[in-house]
Model the fold of this input.
Amino acid sequence: MLALVTGASSGIGLQYATQLARDYHCDLLLVSNQEQELAQVSKDLSATYGVKTIARYADLSLPNAAETLHDWCVESGYTVDILINNAGVFFFNQYCNTSMKRIELMLQLHMITVAKLTRLFAADMIERQLTDEEARTRICGHKRMRGYILNMSSMSAWMAMPGIQTYNATKAFIYNFSKALWYELRPHNVGITVMAPGAVDTGLFGLAPNLRKLAVALTVSIPPHRLVKRALRKMFRNKKADTPGVINWLCTPLLKHTPDWMLFLAQKKLAPYMK
Done:
């Protein structure tokens, strides 16, 4: 199987690429806008796990990036069995102080490109005919499907949090878009799964090591490798959506009803950190 992973040169995307190669023996089509890092990752994964890797430098925030990537795959004869829409950006600031360029970048990368890539590659998957051997293959205990798509959302999809208003909105789009498509694609034996994790245990939030360990222990935060392992398992089982962590799952309904006074307080406390 050939897996296309966007944002594959670092972070969670690199974890997807690594685990797909190591645990599922997938060949990889790695896409990123970090050209040098991408080339090194491609070389390392191929040497370490003995899989075929293709590095494709691309800026997925460009208006026609999805069409360009898909056309290149078709022209090159690459059949994509797995699409991991992972590429994304994050910034924390007041909306009216955010440049139009940064707003457009996030909207394009998180929504337009994800929607287009899903549309183009899902259509290819629907038309695909599995060989008898492929049809007999079982992954995670389940029969192989014509194709798999995994989209990355976030728990912030249910939050109206000042400072990350555009991020919240785009993640909400990804979540609802993917869940609706699950019903459309299931009759065609094509799976689509959306992951909506809470905090991921990286240095992004600047927490002290002991607090990071506590957050992981309480399942509020999840290490990147554990998130990816869970996400791939859910994808191959054709689960519709997943939010890791019992506390996160229980808190999701509450996020939709956060009182205004709490959001105003959060805005006041977080204002010094907005760029």
The radius of gyration is 19 Å.
